[in-house]
Amino acid sequence: MYPVGENIKCNNIVITGGSGFIGTNLVEYYVRKGYNVLNIDIKEPPNKNHISFWENIDINNYDILYKTLVDFKPNVIFHMAARTDLNGYRIEDYKTNIDGVKNLISACKKIPNLKRVIFASSKLVCRNGYVPNNDIDYCPDTMYGSSKVEGEKLIVNDKEINFSWVIVRPTSIWGPWFNEPYRNFFDKVNKGLYVHPKGINARKTYGFVGNTVYQLDKIMFSCDTLVDKKIIYLGDYEPIEIKHWADLISKEMGVRRPIEVPIFLLKSLGKVGDFFKLLGVNNFPYSSFRFKNILAETTFNLSNLYHICGELPYDLKMGVEETVKWLTGITGQDGSYLTELLLSKGYEVHGIIRRSSSFNTDRIDHLYKDPHTNNIKMFLHYGDLTDSSNLSRLIEKIQPDEIYNLAAQSHVKVSFEVPEYTADVVGIGTLRLLDAIKDTQVKTKFYQASTSELYGKVQEIPQKETTPFYPRSPYAAAKLYAYWVTVNYREAYNLFACNGILFNHESPRRGETFVTRKITRAVANIYKGKQDRLYLGNLDAKRDWGFAGDYVEAMWMMLQQPEPDDYVIATGETHTVREFCELAFEYAGYGLVWQGEGIEEKGIDAKTGKILIEVDPRYFRPTEVDLLLGDPAKARERLGWQPKVSFKELVKMMVEADMNNA
Question: How is domain 12-177+204-238+300-317 classified at the architecture level of CATH?
Answer without folding.
Answer: 3-Layer(aba) Sandwich (3.40)
